[in-house]
Each structure stands twice: as structure tokens, then as C-alpha cells.
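RECORD TYPE: protein structure
NAME: NADH-quinone oxidoreductase subunit H
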Amino acid sequence: MSLLSTLIGTILFAIAAPVVGCLLAGLDRIVSARMQGRVGPPLLQPYYDVRKLFEKERVSVNSVESVYVAAALLFALLAGGVFFSGGNLLLCVFVITLSSLFFIMAAYSTRSPYAEVGAARETLQVMAYEPMVLLMAVAFFQATGSFDVAAALAMPHPIVCTIGLVFLGVLFILTIKLRKSPFDLALSHHAHQEIVRGVTTEMSGPTLGLVEIMHWCENVLFMGWIGLFFVWGSPVSAVVVALAVVITYFLEIWIDNNFARVKWQFMFKSAWLVALIAGGVNIALLAFL
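PREDICTED:
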């Protein structure tokens, strides 16, 4: 992976990901509404909401909050650029984690008790899903012989055939990373879940707009991770990847609308248990068999 290809990939991701992520968010709202017996908003409602946020006056508790949020968005874009340019998967994991840490620091910098509670919960979520994400990168290396995402295109079959247990583990922690119920502890997208909105309580206007765009980009990246399990050296894989991503995203919406929020203790224990069983067993089998 060259620096130039990463730079080009980041620029292209920065252009395409917000558009695709916005459409995914709009589709999420429509499907959720239909599941609840409502008509739902138009497909572009997330775009209208973010545009309205950027039209508002910039008001923040301090000057560093928006800097941390901008840094979080920048690293999310860089992670997407590394991944979709065929770069190092492990580097992509580290960069997107760094993005999450900047987001947490933005909440802590406000010194609001509600935002601090949300930041603490966000930290717990990172600690819960990070082992499984790292095991995903290790398993990918075992399956392909390289950390480079482009190596999956040289495989004679999709890597899910080799690391299927890891894929199930990633599916489990994906609900946490997408911040969907039952694991939407730090930032709920449903009005009935919180009196105040957790980690983004003190964020408003353009700063909150950047947060929403960051979430759109993260969703596109995470769907890319799902698609990675179904890519191999055949044009047919494009259709398989599309089907896998659509089914997975619909499954996440269904889970979000049918399960109540759990306590952080259950989230933490279950995520680590899944990482140990799904990730650990699969990696051990590849290593010793």
C-alpha cells in the first residue's frame, strides 16, 4: 500500500461515504417506521437534519470540543480510505479506534455530568468490542497470509468459509459499533431511550452535524468489513457481497427494533465471551490444524 493510494482512497471515501451513509440512515428510519406501523420520514431526512444543523449558530462549551470532533471525523475518513484502497486491515482497525477515542475526549472536554456518563459508556463499548475486532484482523491474516485487504481478491473462495466463527463474532459486536439496541448505551437514536442524549448532550449546531457525518462514514466502513468476508477472486463476489451487506443491515435494524437495552455488565461480558469463543476457537483451529 502506497501513501498516494491511501490519500486517493481517503479523498474518494470522504466524497462517497457521507452520501452512502446518509442513504443508509434514511433507509434505516423508513424500515424502522414500517416495523412500528408508521409511514416514516422521506429517504433524505437525515440530510435535511444535518443541513439544518450546519445552518445554526456555532455554540459550544469550549473551543476544543469541535477540534476533537473534527479529529474524530478525520480519522474515520482515513480509516475508510485505508480499507477501501486495499490497505492494511490492522491499521484500519487502529485508526478507527483512534477516531472513537477523540469522540470520547470531545464529550469529556465539556465537563457536563450527562456527557461524562455518555463518554464513560462509550469507553466501555470500545473496551467491549475491541478484542473481537482485533481478532478479526488476526484471523484475516491467517486466512489470506496478509493484513492487506486487497489479498482477499486473490482468494479462490470467500474467507467466511475459513473464518466463519469470526464472522459470527463480528456480527455480534457490529450491533455495538452501530450503536443499536440492545447495546445503544452511550448514544441512543431513539427518543424514548434517554431524557438527555448521552455523549452528545452538549453538542449542537455544526459540531453535532460533524458527529452525524462521522456516524454515516463509520456505518459504511463497518458494512465494508462485513463485505470483506464474502469477497474472492471472481466477479460474482460483487453480487454476494451486496446481498450479504443488505441482509446484515436489515438484521441490525430488526434487532434494534425488537430488543430492549441491556445493562453495561451484560454487554461487556457477552462481547468478551463471544470474542473468546468465536474468535479464539477459530484462530486456534487455523493455527493448530
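COMMENT: The chain has a mean pLDDT of 90.
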